[in-house]
Amino acid sequence: MKTFDWTRLFTWPYKIYTQLLFWVIVFLLYILLKEYPQRMSGITLICLVFQETLELIIPCYSQNLLVLPFLKHRKWLVGFVIYAVQLVVLIELLPYFLNLIGLLFAKLFHITDVVTNWQEQHFAFTMVAFTVMASLAKVGMDRLIRDKEQKENELRHLKAQLNPHFLFNTLNNLYGLSVAESKKLPDLMLKLSDLLRYSLYDTNQHYVALQKEIEYLNNYVELERIRLSGNSDIELTFEGDTAERYIAPLLMIVFIENAFKHFSAAKGEKSFVHIRLAVNGDELHLKVQNSVDPGFAPILSAKRKGGLGLENARQRLNLIYPGQYQLKINKNQDIFETNLIVELT
Hints:
Elements: H1 14-33, H2 42-72, H3 76-109, H4 123-180, H5 185-201, E1 208-209, H6 210-228, E2 233-239, E3 246-247, H7 253-262, E4 272-280, E5 283-291, H8 300-320, E6 325-331, E7 335-343
Parallel strand pairs: 2-4
Antiparallel strand pairs: 1-3, 4-5, 5-7, 6-7
């Protein structure tokens, strides 16, 4: 499912249409919400509302195009000088420009009751208020767009770290199998092809169908099952309905990769990796357990490298599902367990 990127509304050429739509809405709100004298109707009313809308538009754009760029670059003195000049020009000349608009309407549509005394209005307070509000709105919107772009850049960076990590492990498996049992290579290559197709063509979207993500995980587990040749107890179970359910791609593979990477067992015991997926209502539950050799003490540097994938996964969860997930990782004497609950879209 491709999500709507609202920031496109503020990029060229869409921002032209967005701003036109915004001012049309302002124009209509004036007509619908403001009370005008009954003598104001038809073209006369449209002329007055058009003048009032211009009273908003002109200071907003002059502020954001002429003054704000200097303030953004911390050129305070130049910015405030231009702002002061702008206020004087707007207060002194804008009323006459609006009068001219009224006279133009009167000449074109042969109406007489148009407003042509804008110089008698209190323009000083209005111009200060409009320019300040225009600056605050522009700065706030730019901040929202910048934060969103920053989050997307972070996500692309994290995904770029995940994919090579997975490929590195899979190619290692491929090499090991080619040396030991070459008859299993065709099936392995086919599943690897499916995995790469999914990674290349589907994971560029913000969300993918949950069913596709599960098929991807199933292919990965089957690859591991072939590689381990039945020497370990591997289980993957799923319960629930995946129809019309979507999830961020490659979100769960990290926890499963981690289980296969670090599983072990005490001498005489059979190692295992158990994966359980379940959809309950709007929640996806993932439980991954792997056996651990109680006598195994990991080398510190190796432990740090192994934690990179989990840290990336946690960062992605914070960016994509803020406040919408629970992640618990527990390690006791002989079992490492990960429990993840995500609110699905």
